[in-house]
Write a structure and sequence with these properties.
single chain; 191 residues; alpha+beta; Immunoglobulin-like; 2 domains; five-stranded antiparallel beta sheet; 3 helices; 13 strands
Length: 191
C-alpha cells in the first residue's frame, strides 16, 4: 500500500516536494521510473530505508495544472506494491508564507471592488492590490486552517474584510440582491 502527501485537486507551491510512502521498501529503479509528474522532468530520491520516495522538479514549477503518476512500483524482490494512481494538482504562486505542514484545499485570489470580490485566476500572476483566501488542513495537528493575505503576502483578517464588504453591500443595496432589487423597482413602476 502507498500513501501520497497530496490529495486530488490540491493546491501546492512551486517548490513543493511530493512524497510517496510505502509499507515495503521500494526498488530504486522502479521508483525513479514509476513516480513522475506529467511533462515535467524531476528526480526521485529514496529515504527511510527505501520506504519513502521524494519527487522534486528539476526546476521551479510554474503555476498551472499538473498530474502526478505513480505506477509499476515494486519492492526489492520484484513484487508489485501498488496499482496505478493519477493525482491531479494545481501549482499556485503566492507571496504568502505558508507552513509546509498546511495542505491547501481551497485557494481564492480576488480583487476588492467597492462592496464585493471579483475572482482572479489563481495560476496567473496578478498585478495591483488583491487578497488571497486559503483554506486547508494543518497536517501535523489535523486542524482546519482558514487564512487570508493581502497582495504583499501579509496576513490579514479575512473574516473582518468579508463582514465589511457585506455591510457595504447591505448599506448600498438593502437586503436584496442588486438584480432582484432592480426587478422589484421595475415592477413597482409598472403597477
Amino acid at each position: 500500500m502507498i500513501r501520497v502527501n497530496i490529495s486530488p485537486d490540491q493546491f501546492v507551491l512551486p517548490d513543493s516536494v511530493i512524497e510517496v510512502e510505502s509499507d515495503a521498501p521500494l526498488l530504486p529503479r522502479a521508483a525513479r521510473a514509476g513516480i513522475s509528474v506529467e511533462e515535467i522532468s524531476g528526480q526521485v530520491h529514496l529515504g527511510r530505508g527505501g520506504k519513502r520516495a521524494l519527487w522534486t522538479s528539476d526546476q521551479r514549477l510554474v503555476p498551472g495544472q499538473y498530474r502526478l503518476h505513480v505506477r509499476d512500483l515494486v519492492d526489492h524482490r520484484g513484487k508489485a506494491i501498488s496499482d496505478r494512481h493519477v493525482v491531479p494538482f494545481t501549482v499556485i504562486d503566492t507571496k504568502a508564507k505558508l507552513k509546509a505542514s498546511i495542505r491547501v484545499e481551497s485557494f481564492v485570489r480576488a480583487r476588492v471592488n467597492e462592496d464585493q470580490l471579483s475572482r482572479i485566476n489563481p495560476i496567473v500572476r496578478a498585478d495591483g492590490p488583491y487578497v488571497e483566501f486559503v483554506k486547508g488542513t494543518d497536517q501535523r495537528s489535523g486542524r482546519p486552517v482558514d487564512l487570508a493575505f493581502d497582495h504583499t503576502g501579509r496576513q490579514i483578517d479575512g473574516a473582518a474584510l468579508l463582514a465589511k464588504l457585506a455591510a457595504a453591500r447591505a448599506k448600498r443595496r438593502g437586503k436584496y440582491d442588486e438584480a432582484l432589487g432592480a426587478l422589484l423597482r421595475g415592477a413597482a413602476a409598472h403597477a
